[in-house]
Design brief:
The protein is α+β, with helices and mostly antiparallel strands. Among the domains are: about 190 residues, no CATH class; about 180 residues, no CATH class. About 65% of the residues lie in helices and about 10% in strands. A six-stranded mixed β-barrel has the order 2-3-7-4-6-5. Strand 5 and strand 6 form a beta hairpin. The longest helix is centred in the middle third of the chain and has 44 residues. It is elongated. This is FtsX-like permease family protein.
Length: about 650
C-alpha cells in the first residue's frame, strides 16, 4: 500500500473524529473570508460615517479571529495525535521512520485543510452578501448590492490558511520526534489519578478558590467609581478571578465530590459511579482547559451582551443626553431662519424659547469647606422646562436637582446631599443638591453641569450671582420634529443654517452615528462570540470523545454484567451535565459581574439584551452537550 492510499484510508477510518473539527475549520475560514470581503469593500466603507473606522475594525476582528482559530486548531490537533498515538507507534515499530510518519500526518492535515479552505471560501463568498445586508440593516442603511467575489479577500484567506498549516505542521513534527514508543502506546491509557490530600488542606484550597472569586467580584464593584486606579483594580480582578477559577476546577470540585463519596461510605451506586467518580479523578487534569473555557465563555458572553445592550439602548441613551432634536444658544436669527425653512418644507415641529443662566461654581460636600475646582453650571427653571414638554421633579425652594446622563460615569451621582458654591451678592452663596437624575434637560453640547431649580430660586439666583466673569444670561431656541420620517430633511436644514465651526450636533445625526458605531460593534462581537463558543464547545466535545474511547472497556464490562444501555446512559448524562454546566455556570456568573461594572456606560436597562444573549449562549452550549451524549450512546451500544 502506497502513502496516498494509506492517507485516504486513514482519513476514512477517522471520519467520525474529524467531522466537527472539519466543520469548525470551514466555519472559521468562511467567517474570515467574509470579514476580508467586507474590509475590502470600498463602497460600504464610503457609505459608513467617518466616525466609524469600518476597515480598521474589521481588520482587528480578523486578527482576533486568526488567533482564536490557531489556538483551537493546535488544541484539536494535539487531541487527535494523542488518540492516534498507538497508530503512530505501530508505524515506527514496523520500521518506518519518524520523518515518514510526520510526513503522512502533515499530508493528511493538508488534504483536510485544503478541503476546508475550498468549502469555507465558497460558503464565505455565498454568504458575504447576506452578512453585508445584515450589517447594513444593523446600521440603518438600505442599499441593493449584487453578488461579487473579492480576489484580495481570497489572497488574504489563503495566506492565513498557509500560516495555520505551517503552525500545525510544526506541532506535528515536534510531537512525533519528541515522543518515545512507550509514551505513544501508553498515551491513550493515561488517566488522571485522584490526589488524596489531607482533608484540612483540601478544604483550605477549596475555600481559597471560592474566596478569590468572591474577592474579585467585590473589588469589581469599585472600578466604576475609581477611574484613577482603573488599571490596578482590573488587574486585581483578573488575577483573583482566573486563579480562583483554576482552584475551583483543580481542587474545590474534587474536594466536594470526595466529601460526597465519603458521606456515601464509598457506596456510590451505578449512576454516581459513572458520573461522580470520573469527574473526581479527572478534574485535576481538566483544570487548565476548563479554566480557559470558563474565562473565554465569560469574555464572549460579556462582549456579546455589552455590545447588544449598547445597540439595543442607542436611541434611549441618545435621547437622555439630547432631549431636543436640535437646540441653539443665543442665536435668535438662526433660530428664526430654521423655523422658516422647516415651514417651507412642510415639516411639522415644535419650537420653544428657554431661559438659562451659566455661572462659575464649585461642588462641595455639605457642611464642608473643601471644594472642587471651579466649573461652569447651567441653571434652569423646573416650571419653564415643564412647559416645553419635559417631565421633571420640582425641587424644593433653595434646592436643585442635578441632571446628567453621565452622572454615574462622572462619579457625580448624588447619594448624599451636596452643595454648589458660587460668588453671590448676598449672604446666600450655596445651593443644596440633594439628588441627581440620569438625564439631561438641555442637549449635552452646551457646556456646564445642568441644575434644575424652582422658579423662585431661579429668579433669586439670577439677581444674586455676581456679574462680569461669573454670570451669563442665556436664551435657548429648542426644536422637536413631529414627523419622524422627515427628521433627515430637518437635520439638513439645521446643519445648513448654522456655522459648522461651532460643531453643533442634532439628535438625528448623533443617533445615526451611535447606531453605526454600535451596529459595527455588535456585528463583530456577535460573530467573534460565535467563534469563541464554537471553539470552547468543540474542545469540550473532543475531550469527551477521548474519554468515551478510553472508557469503552468499562462499558463493555457493564454490558456483559447485564446492565442496559439506558441504565448506563443515565449516569453518563449526569456526568455531561456536570462537564458542560459547571464551566458555563461559572462563566455566566463572571459575565454577570463584568456586565454589572459595564452598566455604568449605559443609562437604559441592560436586562433584556443580557437575558437574550445569555439564553442564546446556553442553548448553543446545550447543543454541544446533546452531541456529546449521542456520541457516548453510540460508544455504549457498540461496546458489546
Amino acid at each position: 500500500m502506497n502513502t496516498r492510499k494509506l492517507v485516504l484510508r486513514s482519513m476514512r477510518k477517522n471520519i467520525k473524529m474529524y467531522y466537527l473539527y472539519f466543520f469548525a475549520m470551514i466555519f472559521s475560514i468562511g467567517l474570515y473570508f467574509i470579514f476580508s470581503t467586507l474590509q475590502n469593500d470600498q463602497t460600504v466603507g464610503k457609505m459608513v460615517q467617518a466616525s466609524v473606522n469600518f476597515s480598521t475594525a474589521l481588520q482587528i476582528a480578523g486578527i482576533l479571529l486568526i488567533f482564536i482559530t490557531i489556538v483551537f486548531t493546535l488544541y484539536a490537533t494535539s487531541i487527535f495525535i494523542r488518540r492516534r498515538s498507538q497508530e503512530i507507534g505501530l508505524y515506527q515499530l514496523i520500521g518506518l521512520s519518524k520523518a515518514w510518519v510526520a510526513r503522512v500526518l502533515i499530508l493528511e492535515h493538508t488534504i483536510l485543510g485544503l478541503g476546508a479552505l475550498l468549502i469555507g471560501t465558497l460558503v464565505g463568498a455565498l454568504l458575504s452578501r447576506l452578512f453585508l445586508m445584515l450589517f447594513l440593516n444593523l446600521i440603518g442603511l438600505e442599499v441593493v448590492f449584487g453578488l461579487s467575489f473579492s480576489f484580495q479577500a481570497l489572497i488574504q484567506t489563503i495566506a492565513v490558511f498557509t500560516c495555520l498549516l505551517m503552525v500545525t505542521s510544526i506541532q506535528i513534527i515536534w510531537t512525533v520526534y519528541r515522543s518515545t514508543l512507550l509514551e505513544l502506546f501508553q498515551a491513550d491509557h493515561q488517566n488522571d489519578t485522584f490526589v488524596e490530600r489531607p482533608s484540612i488542606v483540601s478544604g483550605m484550597l477549596g475555600l481559597a478558590g471560592l474566596s478569590l472569586i468572591g474577592f474579585g467580584y467585590y473589588v469589581s464593584t469599585f472600578i466604576a467609581y475609581n477611574a484613577d486606579a482603573l488599571v490596578f483594580l482590573m488587574l486585581i480582578v483578573l488575577v483573583c478571578t482566573i486563579l480562583g477559577t483554576y482552584l475551583v476546577f483543580h481542587t474545590t470540585i474534587s474536594w466536594i465530590l470526595n466529601a460526597f463519596r465519603k458521606k456515601k461510605s464509598g457506596n456510590l451506586g451505578l449512576y454516581n459511579s459513572l458520573s461522580v467518580a470520573p469527574l473526581m479523578h479527572r478534574m485535576k487534569g481538566h483544570a487548565n482547559s476548563l479554566t480557559i473555557i470558563t474565562i473565554l465563555s465569560a469574555m464572549a458572553i460579556t462582549m456579546i451582551s455589552l455590545s447588544y445592550s449598547l445597540y439595543y439602548s442607542t436611541e434611549t441613551d441618545v435621547r437622555l443626553s439630547m432631549p431636543f432634536d436640535f437646540a441653539l444658544e443665543n442665536m435668535p436669527e438662526e433660530g428664526a431662519e430654521i423655523a422658516s425653512k422647516l415651514e417651507e418644507a412642510q415639516i411639522e415641529f415644535d419650537q420653544y424659547q428657554v431661559d438659562g443662566i451659566r455661572f462659575q461654581g464649585a461642588w462641595v460636600e455639605q457642611d464642608s469647606e473643601a471644594a472642587h475646582l471651579n466649573r461652569p453650571f447651567l441653571l434652569f427653571s423646573a416650571e419653564r422646562m415643564e412647559q416645553v414638554g419635559l417631565e421633571l421633579e420640582r425641587p424644593q425652594e433653595g434646592e436643585a436637582i442635578y441632571h446628567s446622563s453621565r452622572a454615574i460615569i462622572e462619579g457625580m451621582e448624588v447619594n448624599s446631599p451636596k452643595e454648589v458654591r458660587y460668588a453671590s451678592n448676598d449672604e446666600v452663596n450655596r445651593l443644596t443638591v440633594p439628588k441627581s437624575r440620569l438625564d439631561n434637560v438641555m442637549n449635552y453640547i452646551f457646556y456646564g453641569d445642568q441644575l434644575v431649580v424652582s422658579e423662585e430660586t431661579f429668579a433669586r439666583m439670577r439677581d444674586s450671582i455676581q456679574e462680569d466673569e461669573y454670570k451669563e444670561t442665556l436664551a435657548f431656541d429648542v426644536f422637536n420634529v413631529l414627523d419622524p420620517e422627515k427628521t433627515d430633511i430637518a437635520t439638513d436644514i439645521f446643519l445648513s443654517s448654522v456655522d459648522r465651526d461651532l460643531l453643533l450636533r442634532d439628535f438625528y445625526s448623533t443617533y445615526e452615528g451611535s447606531r453605526q458605531t454600535f451596529g459595527l460593534l455588535i456585528f463583530i462581537a456577535g460573530f467573534l462570540g460565535l467563534v469563541f463558543l464554537l471553539s470552547t464547545g468543540s474542545i469540550l466535545y473532543f475531550k469527551q470523545m477521548t474519554e468515551a474511547e478510553q472508557e469503552k472497556n468499562h462499558y463493555r464490562t457493564l454490558r456483559q454484567l447485564g446492565f442496559q444501555v439506558n441504565d448506563i446512559m443515565k449516569g453518563i448524562i449526569r456526568k455531561q451535565l456536570f462537564v458542560y454546566l459547571i464551566p458555563l455556570g461559572i462563566g455566566l456568573t463572571h459575565a454577570a459581574f463584568a456586565l454589572n461594572v459595564s452598566s455604568i456606560l449605559i443609562a437604559a436597562s441592560m436586562l433584556t439584551p443580557i437575558l437574550i444573549s445569555m439564553a442564546a449562549y446556553i442553548v448553543i452550549y446545550l447543543i454541544f452537550a446533546a452531541f456529546t451524549i449521542q456520541y457516548y450512546k453510540s460508544i455504549v451500544k457498540s461496546a458489546l
